[in-house]
Design brief:
2 domains, six-stranded mixed sheet
Length: about 260
Amino acid sequence: MELKSNEVGKPDIKNLGFVEQLSSISTENEISRDDFSSLVISGEFSRGKYQRQLIENDSENLYCVNRSRKIEQVLSDDASILNKVFVTSDIGNGKTVFLSQLATEALNQGYNVFIVRSELDEVFAEVEMLLERTERQIFIVDDYIRHRRISKFIALRLSGNHKLIVSGRSDIEDTNYEQLTDELSGAFKEIDLNQLSTDEISQWERLLDRWGFWEDHGGADQQSRMNFLKKDCGAENRSIILAIFKKPRVADKIKSIVEYFLI
């Protein structure tokens, strides 16, 4: 359904200025070691690279840890029954990357996906117009505490075809279930990203092997590497990434980036 208006100044789906509507993206031709390095070092996530990983699904086209089970938990729920999700993680455990993965797969499943990053008055008008539509839609708000007002506004007005995904840090003290239930106008599902599953740890093992980041663990077998990721790194993204930062190749690349900006 396309919405047009004869009223001057009324928001139009074709001319959103304050809410970002994501569109399907072309699959990238290849995935390189530099792509993986950029993701790990600077958090630069490419939906095109991720799309290639999803399509190819082989040992060569590895880009990131696909948190498919968590994504399925969000997308598989009937929106008419449970349509609000709170995604939590500690700093560095993959919240923003997860939201990008979720958005990509939601588009693949036919959802319209909107990113809300502001609380200007104009945003409320655009969101209200979008909430009047009957299509399957997902609204993603990264950082609930920062965007509390617009999150509450959306939650109060969701229809049966809409989902609201908000995110926040696990250690935020001024957020609790009772308060969130009230502010999000009813029950919500929590997705905790802090602990990696066995399958996700296995993906990390294959990624590090594929792109040559094991170095001092290069001669170890797969199970030993899995144990390292699970026990030494606590089965969490940030500890694994910190371990990668200690590798000479990555340390040298970080140093070159810092020097570039200091010149």
